[in-house]
Amino acid sequence: MSTETPAVADLSPDELRAFAERAGVELEGAHPSEILAWAARTFGDDLVVASSMGDEVLVDLVAKAVPGANVIFLDTGYHFAETIGTRDYYAEFTDIRLRTVLPLRTVAEQDAEHGPRLHDRDPNLCCALRKVEPLERGLAPYTAWVTGMRREDAPTRTDITVVGWDARRGKVKLNPVAAWTQADVDAYVAEHHVVLNPLRQAGYASIGCAPCTRATAPGEDPRAGRWSGTSKTECGLHT
């Protein structure tokens, strides 16, 4: 960035928002590794990465650009075994500090309170209980958080910035791979031999909870496999 980085801890919320928005403009076009390195210098231990282990390229980038980075994984209780295995690989074999965050209730406790298969009857409530609320707790200690969102992922994400402001949570939000296309992702995977979630080989373009995710056909929208047959397109983490 061309401007001198202030001590973010001394900024008011309005100043921090302005700082983040300015950084988003100045870092547009920068390589994700450069954005992550800037974030580490700026926020230090007040920076956290949120990963679903369906964004393996982000985790690989983070481990290389920000060794020892804080990473939180939301274990909804509904993940594919392959996703849990991917989490375990990155926790053990890469230089990150991974912490798993659990919902307040187990699946059995949720079933007892709301009835079984809430994800079929009210997926928004299920996501709120098993994803959104745990994320709020996971992010609470931090000033800035990192996601693996890309602009081409979905129509709802075309305007995301590489650095911006999460007004809902009053935090800086970074999307370092926002501008990357699938071709960029594939090239990085090939060059760096990134370990991918095995579901990729089974046709899962977007990976979420097992009951609400299916494989997609060639040429089908990558998000078509999420909550298929409903109008739901987002879990609520980014709204």
UniProtKB/TrEMBL annotation:
Cofactor section: [4Fe-4S] cluster
A GO molecular-function descriptor: phosphoadenylyl-sulfate reductase (thioredoxin) activity
Cell location: Cytoplasm
Alphabetical GO biological process terms: hydrogen sulfide biosynthetic process; sulfate assimilation, phosphoadenylyl sulfate reduction by phosphoadenylyl-sulfate reductase (thioredoxin)
InterPro entries, A to Z: PAPS/APS_Rdtase, PAPS_reduct_dom, Rossmann-like_a/b/a_fold
Positions of [4Fe-4S] cluster binding: 126-127, 209, 212
Cofactor binding mode and count: Binds 1 [4Fe-4S] cluster per subunit.
Classification via SUPFAM superfamilies: Adenine nucleotide alpha hydrolases-like
Domain of life: Bacteria
Protein's UniProt keywords contain Iron: yes
All residue ranges annotated as the Phosphoadenosine phosphosulphate reductase domain in the record: 47-215
Record key words, sorted: Cytoplasm, Iron, Iron-sulfur, Metal-binding, Oxidoreductase
Reaction(s) catalysed by this chain's protein: [thioredoxin]-disulfide + sulfite + AMP + 2 H(+) = adenosine 5'-phosphosulfate + [thioredoxin]-dithiol
Active site location: 235 (nucleophile)
UniProt EC number: 1.8.4.10
GO CC annotations on file: cytoplasm
Annotated stretches, region: Disordered: 217-239
Metabolic or biological pathway: Sulfur metabolism; hydrogen sulfide biosynthesis; sulfite from sulfate
Family matches, as CDD domains: PAPS_reductase (cd23945)
Residue ranges that the Swiss-Prot or TrEMBL entry lists as coiled coil: none
NCBIfam families attached to this UniProt entry: cysH (TIGR00434), PRK02090.1 (NF002537)
Function: Catalyzes the formation of sulfite from adenosine 5'-phosphosulfate (APS) using thioredoxin as an electron donor.
Entry-linked HAMAP family: CysH
Recorded family membership: Belongs to the PAPS reductase family. CysH subfamily.
Protein name: Adenosine 5'-phosphosulfate reductase
Species this protein is from: Cellulomonas biazotea
